[in-house]
């Protein structure tokens, strides 16, 4: 299957560099590239796009607001958004995820990591760089919710003990390979448990699963 990608970044050299990295996978097709967040929604209205690679710092409106506008007009998760930036502060990570982003990757990722992140997000998962994950978890642990979300906690009751164990390890910042080694199972088994857990609690991706876990009071 072909994945049609829109690149949004105010720096010409960044857009050129991303295009070069995407050539690693012939299934990834650049549908267009823009330099201004204000142009995104008008472009999407006239062009079929599966995923948007979105910069944060841009003229007009920033990537968070542009993502929020995408979600307002295209609430379906079929329209995926990955935020690409050099900034990994917790407030930016949270703002992007709350706006509806499906992933958050650093511009310093390798071409292989970028393609892998896109593949994960298009497949229904989420992609967070190591720095973004650390920022998100750091914010959650430093500022736990004052009141446990009882509705979310009830959703977690539907998880099997194994799924619950995987969820807590995901919330601690471990990747599939690390969780697999700790639980003595395969990475595929870990991913299967994580996907089932996301379905049961209503999380759209791993990033939201982490957020739900903390809001339900299930701290690693």
Could you give a short description of this structure?
Pfam families: GerE (PF00196), Response_reg (PF00072). This protein is an alpha/beta fold and 220 residues long. Helix content is 52%, strand content 13%.
What does this structure look like?
By secondary structure, this protein is α/β, with parallel strands linked by helices. It folds into 2 domains: 3-142, Response regulator (Rossmann fold, 3-Layer(aba) Sandwich); 150-216, Winged helix-like DNA-binding domain superfamily/Winged helix DNA-binding domain (Arc Repressor Mutant, subunit A, Orthogonal Bundle), CATH 1.10.10.10. Helix content is 52%, strand content 13%. It has 11 helices and 6 strands. It has helices at 12-22, 40-46, 63-73, 90-99, 111-122, 130-142, 150-156, 161-171, 176-183, 187-201, 206-215, and strands spanning 3-8, 28-34, 51-54, 80-85, 103-106, 127-128. It has a 6-stranded parallel beta sheet, sandwiched between helices. Helix 9 crosses helix 10. The termini are far apart.
CATH class of the largest domain: Alpha Beta
Query: What is the fold named in CATH at topology level of the largest domain?
Result: Rossmann fold
Topology, number of strands? 6
CATH superfamily of the largest domain: Response regulator
What's the mean pLDDT score?
83
Helix content: 40-55%
Q: What is the overall shape? A: globular
Secondary structure class reads alpha/beta
Summed up, the domain count is: 2
Biggest sheet statistics: 6 strands, parallel
C-alpha termini separation: 38 Å
Indicate the low-confidence ranges by residue numbers.
none
In terms of DSSP E residues, the strand content is 5-15%
Q: Can you name the CATH architecture of the largest domain?
A: 3-Layer(aba) Sandwich
Order of helices and strands: EHEHEHEHEHEHHHHHH
Keywords: DNA-binding, Phosphoprotein, Transcription, Transcription regulation
Domain Response regulatory: 4-122
Organism: Streptomyces acidicola
InterPro entries: CheY-like_superfamily (IPR011006), NreC/VraR/RcsB-like_REC (IPR058245), Sig_transdc_resp-reg_C-effctor (IPR016032), Sig_transdc_resp-reg_receiver (IPR001789), Tscrpt_reg_LuxR_C (IPR000792), WalR-like (IPR039420)
């Amino acid at each position: 299957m072909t994945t049609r990608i829109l690149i949004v970044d105010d720096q010409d050299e960044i857009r050129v560099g991303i295009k070069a990295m995407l050539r690693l996978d012939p299934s990834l097709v650049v549908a267009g590239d823009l330099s201004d967040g204000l142009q995104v929604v008008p472009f999407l209205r006239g062009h079929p796009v599966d995923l948007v690679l979105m910069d944060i710092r841009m003229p007009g409106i920033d990537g968070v607001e542009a993502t929020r506008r995408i979600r307002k007009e295209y609430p379906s998760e079929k329209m995926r958004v990955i935020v690409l930036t050099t900034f990994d502060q917790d407030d930016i990570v949270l703002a992007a995820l709350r706006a509806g982003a499906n992933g958050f990757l650093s511009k310093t990722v390798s071409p292989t990591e970028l393609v892998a992140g896109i593949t994960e997000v298009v497949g229904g998962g989420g992609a967070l760089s190591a720095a973004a994950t650390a920022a998100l978890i750091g914010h959650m642990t430093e500022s736990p919710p004052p009141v446990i979300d009882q509705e979310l906690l009830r959703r977690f009751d539907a998880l099997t003990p194994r799924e619950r164990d995987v969820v807590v390890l995901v919330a601690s910042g471990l990747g599939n390979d690390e969780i697999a080694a700790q639980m003595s199972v395969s990475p595929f088994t870990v991913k299967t448990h994580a996907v089932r857990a996301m379905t049961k609690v209503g999380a759209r991706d791993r990033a939201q699963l982490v957020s739900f876990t903390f809001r339900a009071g299930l701290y690693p």
